[in-house]
């Protein structure tokens, strides 16, 4: 089951890559899903893409920035 506020996405992945992700995740005390998310965020950061902080609206519980992704130059490049 997906965490609230997160997008669920089925992923087809090479078994050897999956095994390596499992090893990395275990070494970092993370789930494979958390490890994949960590690696994706790390890759985006290396490309200069900065994710806006997920600040919840106190009244509605919704994300006020709608999950926009922002690059270092301030340009919005899409949604999470």
Please provide a brief summary of the model.
The protein has 80 residues and is an alpha+beta fold.
What's the N-to-C terminus distance? 18 Å
**Tertiary shape:** globular
Order of helices and strands: HHEEE
Radius of gyration: 15 Å
The total tally of domains equals 2
Number of strands: 3
Number of separate helices: 2
Spatial arrangement of strands, main beta sheet? 1-2-3
Based on secondary structure, the structural category is alpha+beta
| Low-confidence region ranges | 62-68
* Main sheet characteristics: 3 strands, antiparallel
- The helix content is 25-40%
**Overall residue-averaged pLDDT value:** 78
Q: How much β-strand is present in the residues?
A: 5-15%
Question: Could you characterize what this model shows?
Answer:
With 80 residues, this protein is an alpha+beta fold. It has two domains: 35 residues, no CATH class; 33 residues, no CATH class. The protein is 35% helix and 14% strand. The protein is built from two helices and three strands. Strands 1-2-3 form a three-stranded antiparallel β-sheet. A hairpin with a 4-residue loop joins strand 2 and strand 3. Helix 1 crosses helix 2. About 9% of the residues have low confidence.
């Amino acid at each position: 089951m997906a965490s609230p506020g997160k997008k669920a996405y089925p992923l087809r992945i090479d078994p050897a890559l999956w095994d390596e992700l499992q090893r990395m995740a275990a070494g970092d005390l993370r789930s494979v899903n958390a490890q994949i998310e960590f690696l994706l965020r790390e890759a985006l950061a290396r490309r200069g893409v900065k994710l806006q902080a997920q600040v919840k609206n106190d009244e509605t519980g919704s994300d006020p920035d709608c999950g926009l992704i922002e690059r270092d130059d301030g340009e919005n490049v899409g949604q999470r």
